[in-house]
Amino acid sequence: MRDSFERVARINLLFYLFFVAALLGAIAFNIRPAALVQAFLSPEVLFAVRLSLLTATTTTIISLVLALPAAYFLARRQFPGRSLLETFLDLPLVLPPIVGGVALLLFFRSPLGRWLEGMGLSPVFTAGGVILAQFTVVATYALRLLKTTFETIDPRLEQVARTLGCNSGQVFRRVTLPLARPGILATTVITWARALGEFGATVTFAGATRFKTEVLPTAIYLSLSSVDIDQTVALALILIFLALLALWLLRLAAGIGRENSD
């Protein structure tokens, strides 16, 4: 029975391996070195890379700054309606990103949105709109991952620090944050990678304008629309490289976590 199960497991693993290899091979098959170098150095690709890195990094920083105290509060406090609140906050995890983009568009057509627009805060179809759309999708990821991280930390360690005279802020800075460092690093990488690959909400709210709101996923969409295969492959390879970098950083965070637990 065990041998049969292991045989099935190995076959399934080989299927996954073949599936990923086939997808990567399809991209590799369309690589033309000379055209690829030209595409890499094109102003449009360079603009998309710069804007993607800028917006994804900004979105990640904002998400972490807001999620850190909120996630800690949810992990440590019990209060009436907590379960309902968490369900409401988790809603973006299961909604299609394009729904978030539509909601943003409708919000800025509301009286409050028009008032913000009158104050000069109109991110629709701008680079700021890219950041807001990415934040709409990834903020809940950061909140959920950080909450799970804080829940794995023994609260008795914080109680000991309080008995030694530390206030809540000192406990958080000196005890909780150092213990949560691997989880925070992992959350940072996952949030950044998710923001970098966000397309649905971004193209709905910020549009797909070349040299204005053109991030890497949007650039791929525009390149495919114009049947520019060489540029599409170049953009795909850039995203694959960034994905591999994110995976390496995740493994680094996991290694730090194991060292801390030892």
From TrEMBL:
It is found in: Cell membrane. The keyword Transmembrane helix applies. It holds the Pfam family BPD_transp_1. It is a multi-pass membrane protein. InterPro entries: MetI-like, MetI-like_sf, ModB_ABC, NifC_ABC_porter. The chain crosses the membrane at residues 12-31, 51-75, 87-108, 120-143, 233-254. It comes from the Bacteria. Keywords: Cell membrane, Membrane, Molybdenum, Transmembrane, Transmembrane helix, Transport. One of its GO terms (molecular function) is molybdate ion transmembrane transporter activity. One of its GO terms (cellular component) is plasma membrane. Residues 49-250 form the ABC transmembrane type-1 domain. Belongs to the binding-protein-dependent transport system permease family. CysTW subfamily. Part of the binding-protein-dependent transport system for molybdenum; probably responsible for the translocation of the substrate across the membrane. This is Molybdenum transport system permease.
